[in-house]
Description:
Layout: E1 4-5, H1 6-9, E2 11-16, H2 30-49, E3 52-63, E4 72-82, E5 86-96, E6 103-116, E7 128-129, H3 133-160
Parallel strand pairs: 1-7
Antiparallel strand pairs: 2-4, 3-6, 4-5, 5-6
Amino acid sequence: MEGKAVNYSRIIMAIQMNPEDANPAGNVHGGVIMKYIDTAAGVVAIRHARKIAVTASIDRLDFHNPVYVGDLLILKASLNMVGRSSMEAGVRVEAENILTGEVRHTASAYLTFVALDRDGKPAGVPPLVLETEDDNRRNCEALERRRVRMEQKAAERCRTK
């Protein structure tokens, strides 16, 4: 299977936040942002695999700044690491006040997706071609997150026996 570069599936998605997206505090609800993060990461995984891909885990999601009604939510998503059937996507979320032009980094997340065949079983995906220093750095960081995640899963299995 021929590899694909990170740029092949990278996306930028933008959505204006509306009153129905607000929580009781008047800011955009974290769950709304999470849905868009999952959507952006899923699109990247499916574009790379050219197969259905489902969310296996959200490794980390950190909110840094609030998003307000009227802001333009900007999601920048790309693959960091590809395994046999799994893929880690990183998503950077920014909020732009479209009246002033101010842009705030509002959240970052890492999600793992698994590609599926027509029977719903894990399916192989093309390798990820790393072309830049940034691609290599993100891949190394993703491999470390995967190592930690696998150790945690092994420890959980031991505790449940």
